[in-house]
Each structure stands twice: as C-alpha cells, then as structure tokens.
Amino acid sequence: MAASTGHPDQPPPAKRGFFRSQVRAVLGTVLVVALLGTAAIPWLLSNPQRLSRFIAGVIPELQADVTLGRVRLSWAGPVVLEDMKVVPRDGGSPPITIERISGSHGLAAILLSAGDLGTLRIEGLKVAVRYDARQRSNLEGLVAKPADSRPGPGGKPPRRSPVRLRLEVDDAVVGISGPWTADPWISDPIDVRAALAPAAGGWSEWTVEPVQLLTQARLEPGVAQGVLAYIAPVLADATRTSGRFSLRLDGARLPVGQPAAGELAGMLSMHEVVVGPGPLVEGMFRSLPGQLSPPPAIRIADESHVSFRLAERRIWHEGLEFGLPLAKTDQRLDVRSQGSVGLDDRSLDLKLSLPIPADLPQDKPLLAALAGKTVSLGVGGVLGQPRIEFDGSIKAAAGQVVTGVFIWWKRPAQTASRARA
Prior knowledge:
Elements: H1 2-6, H2 11-45, H3 48-58, E1 64-67, E2 70-72, E3 80-88, E4 96-103, H4 107-112, E5 116-123, E6 126-130, E7 164-178, E8 181-186, E9 190-198, E10 204-208, E11 211-218, H5 221-226, E12 241-255, E13 263-275, H6 279-286, E14 298-300, E15 303-311, E16 314-325, E17 332-342, E18 348-355, H7 365-370, E19 374-382, E20 385-390, H8 395-409, H9 412-420
Parallel strand pairs: 5-7, 6-7
Antiparallel strand pairs: 1-3, 2-3, 3-4, 4-5, 4-6, 7-8, 7-9, 9-10, 10-12, 11-12, 12-13, 13-14, 13-15, 14-16, 15-16, 16-17, 17-18, 18-19, 19-20
C-alpha cells in the first residue's frame, strides 16, 4: 500500500518541468528578439534616409528636409553625421550646410542619461542668408509659426526640449545677400560655444557664451541693412556704405520656441563708417521747415561704440552718434540716437538728440535762447519708413531752430561777416 500510494505522485513533477521549459523558451525568444531589436536600432538609424524621416517626425514645425550624406551610430561609440543640408521644401537652395557633426556620447549614454547628448562639435557650418525686397530672409520660412507666436494669453509659450547638450561651433561662415547689392557679404570664420538645458521657468533655453563674433569686418549693404540696422537704425536702407565694424556678444539666453522673448547683450563698434543718407536722415530733413536737402553722406563717429541688448522682443541701443557734414571745414552737427527696434514688426521707437552749437549769432533771439542746448526728435514708424516728430509743444520752435542752425552753418561767409560786425 505504501508503494502503491507513491506511484501516482510522480507525474506532476514532470508536468511542472514541461511548463518551466516552455516559459524559459518563450522568455529566451523574447530576450533574443529584444536584443536583436536593440542591436538593430543603430543600424536602422544609420541609414541617412531613415534618420531624415525621424528628424522630420521629431520636429514637425520644420518646413524643410534635413538630408545627410553619411551617418555613424552605435551604442558605445560617438554619433557622427556628415554632409548635412537643410533643404527648403519650396525648392530653394540650402541656407544651412554642415560638413560634420560629432558627438561625445553614444546611444547607450544618451538613453541612460535621459537625453543628455553630451558635447556636439560642429565643423564646416555655412549659413547663407538671403533677403528679399520686403526685408524677409530665407530663414524665416524654415520653421512654421503659429497664428500668434507672441508669449502670453493665447500665445505659444517657450517649450521644454527632450534633450540637453553642449555645442561647440568652429569656423562657421555666414553669408548675407539681398537686393541692395550683387555681391554677398561673407563673414570671417566664427567660433561659438552654447548649451541647451532646462531653465528655471520649466522650459528649455539656449545659453550662448560671450564671444567676439567679428573684428574689423567690411561694412557692406548686405550686413548693414539685413542685420546691423536693428542695432543702428541709421543704416537702414542706406544708399551706400563704407568702413569697417566689429561685433561682440556678451552672452545670450534664448528660450526654445521663442528666441525673440529671450535676452542678449553686446557691443557694435564702427570704425570710420560713412554711409549715404537713408530714410531716417532724409525724413529728419523733410520734417524741417525750409525744404532743406539732406547731405550726400553722413559719417558715424570715427570710433563709435554702440551697446545693444534684446529685451521685450525689441533690440535696444544707446551710444550711437552720426555726423551731418556742414559747410565749415572739418565741422559737422553730431546727432545722438537711442531707443529700440521691434523684432516682430520692425517698429521704431527712437529719440534723436541734436546739440545746438553755443556760438550761434545773437541777432536771432530764438537761436540765441537755445544756443548750447539740445533739441530732441522722436522717431516712430518702421525700419525703412520712419516717422519724425519733434517734442510736442515746441515742434514749430524746434523746427525753426534746427533749420536756422543748418542755414547758418551752410553760410560760412555770412557768419564771418556777422562776427566781424
């Protein structure tokens, strides 16, 4: 009886072993498939066409195709992208080309760090900016803008990026062209260091380190009207330009998705710059009584250092001076400018200060009363179409004074005879 009772108990262990083997087989198959799938990810993404489609899906607002000549990805090794081009979907020429991007992290390090791409080094970056007759650049159409791109109620706020990285750009070259000239302006090589990381407000932002962008670069219409006019509005639509300039960036913080809502500061230095009178100078002369003609050229102060900053979606400047040549040899009337230009609408909010010379003739009471003082003009409108306004209640008197100053300075012989009398 004892032996017979033991025989029925032996089949169940064999049955449990059968199920265990099935479970092990299934788990092993799943593990193999997972390993193969994991190993295949670098192979799949190493295909330039697949990676281009992946980028298009990750950045749906990008209105361009990113083409790649060669891609090298692995779990352990660095990420390398070569011959990258940003091609507009309207068939235009690529405004951005990059010879090589190399990353310090492999795919495993990126995943384990929850999106830290490490340091990306960019070599052979070329940016070709082209402006049309309406002052719109070919870069503006690369990213689709929402109906209201301004932050605030109903607007699109800055967004958080799923990745973090540090950027090292070496020997980048920027070209700017437009309807003002047949030859594009080409910059000297530029080095930039920047980082993308979460900000205190919950979004992500680019932080750009201080850098001397340009030194003694040639001032040509392309860069003057396309870029520098936001810092020095007197350059907007200038009929001609000559001289050199230097551009320094003291740092920037630019939110992802809303760079115009960020902050930056820097210094524009202009060295012996002479420009033909643009709409700002012409408008100032048209606003004066007496139908005075603008001078054929104006000269920026020989070493003019204009500080600028980005705040409230506007570029603010101070320290800009430009001289209006007068009939007397080596003499001019210096005009000081300060204020801001809107990034979104190119709107002007400027104040021009005209110092009245102290050695005015005493036979005109109005001129004599304001001798040595300063007359201010307000400037509204937009870049290229300024609107000149004198200070409210003294508009008529100020206009007469400024007109009288120009007439007096344009007649050196009469001035000399009055002085002898």
